Records
---
Amino acid sequence: MTDPRPDERAQPATAPVPLLPPFDDRPTRYERLRDAVVLGPEWGRMIRWFAPLVITLLAAVLRLVNLGHPHQLAFDETYYVKDAWSLWTLGYEGTWGENANEAFLTLQQLPLDEKGSFIVHPPLGKWLIALGMSIGGPDNSVGWRLATALLGVGTVLLTYLIARRLSGSVVVASIAGLLLAIDGLSIVLSRTALLDGILTFFLMLGVLFVLIDRERTIPVVQRRDDETPEPLWGRVLWRRPWLVAAGVALGAACAVKWSGLYALAAFGLYVVVTDALARRRAGTVLWPSAAVFRQGPVSFVLLVVPALVVYLASWTGWLVTNGGWGRTADPNPLIALWKYHQSILNFHVGLVSGHPYASPAWEWPLLLRPTAVWVDSDTTSCGTDHCIAVVSSIPNPLIWWAGVAAAVYLVYRLVRFLLGRGTFDTAFAWPLVGLAATWVPWLLFPERTIFQFYTVAMMPFLVLALALTLREIAGRAGDALHRRQAGQRTVAVFLVVVVAVSAFYYPVWTGMSVPYEFWLLHNWLPGWV
């Protein structure tokens, strides 16, 4: 039997086969030719650098300008800001006395007791908030939110980079980055000292690293030696530094909120499945068993062990002190930490207390009950008798609903592909896996008190789905000219309207004082009030 791929056979049989192909982030030959013809090579290179720079700067302006407003603890900042300062001061979360919120505003004697407090989220996100507070002090509201704002800007850049790798297109990547940069939910959660924006950053960082691992590893898995054109098991790869990096990033996500575990499991499973499919394409005889029982345990070690190390490291302050809640439950600190985690799990499973802004996960795609983060009535500063200032976590409605529709379309394409009735771009799988990790698990807890703002972790995957779908609407190079012109006009009009809607909503995302009637215009559904 002969191997029809002469480029692989051209290497001498004795030449060593590298475990990983060399990393090459240069543009493809088609991209170089296109840029040379349309723009010239220098312009093409400049745009590839200029586009992410402009989008990142836009995201920074929308998230950092007037970051200290409102100068008071908004919504659940009352928990995380105080816990962050307690970590910075004691190394663990202490107990706060009465009037603690007011003390933060005036920098009175902070009523912090060294007695440990039962806290239900891991420490890493609060440590990052504390880093910002260490710069300006506990009364500086910019310091409270600095970490979440910077990581929110970073999430926009990561989304651009992921879209660039998935699509191979600067235009598609720019659309994805722009949509996330101007989305209200992402802006609000970047300007508020909550954990979910930090969680989203580490999730997207882990996704980028998994994507790079796939780009490097799958070609190696599919490469076959001349002597064994149909190997029984295929290679087992240990040298996968980007998978280790993904484990570190996803472990950091778990160390911010436990919901990061869902992403760790989902993308870990994705790695195993794509390993199996790569071995199948390479002609490996026992490709399912090879992927699950040979490469699978290796991938588990490379991904999960670093995640576990990072997670444990985030508890260092609690482990090396004695004042934390439950720290003395057992002489062995790891056993005491295990008992603490059992208590946290019982809390999360049994959390069914009512809340006016609670929203079960089945409501999230419909956007029925966004969370009001901060509200202040003001009758003097906007020029009318009745003014109001609001920070509402309403996403840009067009981005949200169009993103949900795009995700449904990608599921439809996947189903048709599985039924043998259509094609499925491998890029489509990434937003679907991400949405499965950030939304589907919450459906399993219909009675638990949860909130619409948790969907900030879904937003990057929704804009990825939307950007890839808009590319389908705009048409491909082989489509008829009139088809592409009509599609590109449709996409252009949609983007212009989306930008206008974000400009319309920006005052209620940032707490500007506006006339009451103007605020009412933003409440398109009854549950948005």
Note: Residues 195-314 form one domain.
---
Amino acid sequence: MSVNLDITDNPLLIGKGLPPFEAIKPEHVEPAMTQLLAELDKELATLEANVQPTWSGLVEPLDRLVERLRWSWGIVGHLMGVKNSPELRTAYETVQPQVVQFLNKLNQSQLLYEAFKALQANDPWDSLEQAQQRIVEAAIKDAELAGIGLSGEKRDRFNAIQLELAELSTKFSNNVLDATKAFSLTLTTKEEIDGLPPSLTSLAASSARAAGEENATAEDGPWQITLDFPSFGPFMQYSTRRDLREKLYKAYISRASSGELDNAPLLERILQLRQEKAQLLGFSNFAELSLASKMAPNVEAVEALLEELRRASFDAAVKDLEELKSFAAAKGAEESSDLKHWDISFWSERQREEKFAFSAEELRPYFPLPQVLNGLFSLVNRLFGVSITAADGQAPVWHEDVLYFQIADETGEAIAYFYLDPYSRPAEKRGGAWMDDCMGRAKITDNGITTTRKPVAYLVCNQTPPVDGKPSLMTFREVETLFHEFGHGLQHMLTKVDYQGAAGINNVEWDAVELPSQFMENWCYHRETLLGMAKHYETGEPLPEHYYQKLLAARNYMSGSAMLRQLHFSCVDLELHYRYQPGGDESVTDVRNRIAKNTTVLPPLPEDAFLCAFGHIFAGGYAAGYYSYKWAEVLSADAFSAFEEAGLDNEQALTITGKRFRETVLALGGSKHPMEVFKSFRGREPSTDPLLRHSGLAA
């Protein structure tokens, strides 16, 4: 089909309701977006000509306009993450510049900006609810950070930068996906798969079949190992072949750093453009621009937190490595005195097996996905009083593995829905896990009738798919990831705010947005929750008590190293956006190596090009904001400690505390400043003590 589609039939132009995924094709993107942007352009001109500095004369019509763009373009962006294809990419890249240009025009509308300022300055201001005031304040700040104060050449330059940054970010992400997909290791002998668990040989044979080896079996191969995490992670933990671990590790850390997929020039250019953009807006550097809309007051406050956590974790990480070397030496390993990066996962898994007498693989049969979902839904019901039921078939899906669910309140009325796309599909789906907004809660008036639109979330994971007739048997880490993403989903779905601009995760400062997600991870160690969901997929027998005790004992195994790794990423990100001068004496790699001296115990290898695949900061929203994980983890650990204080075995106390958490953290969305929201739940400001205690790093 060519671009000459009948526009009236274009599924991307419906503009409301659930996306009709089965009808959407890449060739719909360009004609739909071209027509939509032309219509929105006219709508914007009409709004500017008639704008009133009131809620109904400014915010409501603007919301309707933005929602049309968000609906159509949001679907395209979602499909880029979960159903990427050469045709979709081409369409996306063709249209993206027009979308960015329209957003620049919208964000830099002087008439709308003046109307927002007038709304803030005039009488009806005090009659607005706090949520409405926060939305207006955010709109003014967003306009200022989008270059509203610039004119002439400076504005043109700013807009050109916005356009180039959007294109670079898309290219960066595509390069990582392609580089991950491009490498694979085909193993043909039993010796090459020595140590690998059955779950991995099954997955590797299934990958080989998908790559054309029709007769590949888990028993006899051939086996294909890829850089996709469900394949790469277990291989690094279990393969006894040090030479193959080295090969795979080096391929992983050098992804997207050479040839046509080289992201090195892109990240240099991205940093340069961000620096220039920040200076055009009157900031000394991009970190200050980034923090202008976050919870942390300034770079000093962020650095102080990172340094406090670094001091608490560095010596523990050094000790972790020394213990690992001694353990490997006791096992007669030649490499024990000089452990390399590709040895760490392998030996730490062996040490964990011995120290706590279980392996990560042993637990998999107890965590089939359907059972884990039952446990998660039962917990959410106990804590927050909502019930979750399967609603498959009620919504179109983009892949046959995608599940759809309904959330109902205490009265049984449906209040929200979500999609779950659980399994890894390296050919078309980007790695990692995320929650995204399909539809947000809002009051919608149509033909004089006002209804509340129910929120719908996308929850996307990349866990081990079902193989050889078995369900998806999850690692404990995959269970934690699912709980994490579900926490984001709860904030989106259980919001009580009816204004689109502050409902759910909208208008929540970026460094507070990980609070509900990291909070939910804690429940994976909660006795009743864990034992309620961990049942053997074949026999139905519950997880034996000794495994639960071992999981608890192993919770803080090498936690100093784990914390330090996150701090390394956070510090490198901050340094690149705060002190680093693009084109100066120091390269991006030099910066990372300098930071690594205080934030790693094994310095990065010369060929380590991890930054070339660091999508969080170069293709996601975490630029000068990766510290948010730690900032929010302080909040989430402290929030969970409220449940510990109430008594984790006390059902009644849990229900009361859960209700308070739902009515504050989950319900208030972006209607109040996150510190106010936190204090309304906890009764005080947050403390770092619970995080250090939970990590086993308290002094």
Note: The mean pLDDT is 96.
---
Amino acid sequence: MKNLRSTLATVWRISAPYFNSEDKWAGRMLLAAVIAIELAIVGINVLITQWNARFYNALQDRNWDSFVSEIIYFSVLATVFIVLAVYQLYLNQWLQIRWRRWMTAQYLGDWLHQANHYRMQLQGDAADNPDQRMTDDVKLFVDRTLNIGVGLLSSIVTIASFVTILWGLSNAAPLHLFGQEYVIPGYLVWGALIYSVLGTVLTHLIGWPLVGIDFKQQQYEADFRFNLVRVRENSEQIALLQGEQAERERLLVRFGRVVENWLAIMNRTKKITAFTASYNQASVIFPYVLVAPAYFAEKIQLGGMMQTASAFSNVQGALSFFVTIYRQLAEWQAVVNRLDGFEAGIAAATDLAKRSDRIHVTATQGDGAISLKNLVLRLPNGTPLVNAGKFSFRKGERTLMTGPSGSGKSTLFRAIAGIWPFGGGSVAVPAGATLMMLPQRPYFPVGTLQGAVEYPAKEGAFTAMQIADTLQAVGLPNLASRPDEHGHWNRTLSLGEQQRLGIARALLHAPQYLFLDEATASLDEPSEKALYRLLEEKLPATTIVSIGHRSTLDAFHQRNVALTRDGDRFVLQASENAKVS
């Protein structure tokens, strides 16, 4: 019961925001329509149960006129039932897609808000495979929540509607055992209740492990799919290293977990299916066994027995709701747990950015410099990395940063960008300043070349002439005439071409502060020299900070900053560069 209350509380927390959102009226009206139709269907089932008594009595009495009228009456009920069932499905699916669209938009917004997605990875990405959680899990959550919720409501209303009928039939057809009549008020109701409770308890005892197994199955499936995508994204390197056999073995290990867990699901499903199938088959004859002695004792007619069986079946089916949907219920609870974990991961990443002992990035009015004050960078496990003390990147100056691998150069860039929370101190950035970070391997969205080079601006932010001229300038004349071509540019372009395209992006956006993290390292020295000359020419007012290891870069920077080890961390040591051109 504690787990049930916890699950229901989680479901409410995940579901309620949609029905209080900007789409709340449409969602509420669709939900109300689905529920109203379900109640109408229960009403039709009540009428059909009453029809059973009249129809089978007409058969027993060989009453032709009554038989014909009952056939017509049933045809009308069946037509109404079909129309209601069709529109219930249609409105249910309409509600599902609206609800799913809203939840997906909210999760995407929260996940991508102020680098939450990045901080979630820094924390170990406890909410693994966010792609699956925002696709499969959201879809299953909406579908299962509606189906289980509406089904549960239908069961409650069915019980309330048919218990009265079944209670009256219990009085009309008292229990007969071994030729004796026993007057037990509502014995058919108690029989349905006992039968259903036993079935529910036994089903839970057999099937409860499915919740954990289903959770693992979704996790293993997502992990296997994620690693397939990684192989596809890194196919060139794998081919160059002839790593196909190693990748095949690694992928088969992950798929082996999928298979092993699936076999566990098969075994558990076999057990629960064997029980539920037996339970459902027994429920077909159970009401006849109870009421048949009264029929053969001529206490009721055939129509009364058939009505009793129908009413009993409805009550028993409603009471056995959890038996019939247990498999879905286990899957639903696993989905709820995964979405709850995803929300918890987002919340933890958000809290990480609000901690008092984080690196504070503030906007300031001053001389236009980016100033570091008492800045201490740490690794996620708390290990000290960089102590910047008091340092400034002066406006309009070009600075070259050097240091051994792992000394924290890129991490310092991340702290200035405001996405590295581990540490202390502050980074003061001029108010309204535009910053751009160019890594060694730039990111380009799949789409048109124009959209790739304009990113993160919307496609069309720059004219075709601007883009063509810029691509010519950075040494990509073969791409200058192809702005509308679609492609996966991180895969189709060499790393050197990607770095040229990254410089083109910087030239188009013309940021006030440009941080180059080995952004030209894959180019030959003459090409690198040409691009730095181009940056000087096109962006004369831009403050440029570069990370690089080539001594030839000295000629393009006015100041050198070296990260040198001081005990258990690295510190910044600045010097003016006499080699600047």
Note: The chain has two domains: 2-352, 360-576.
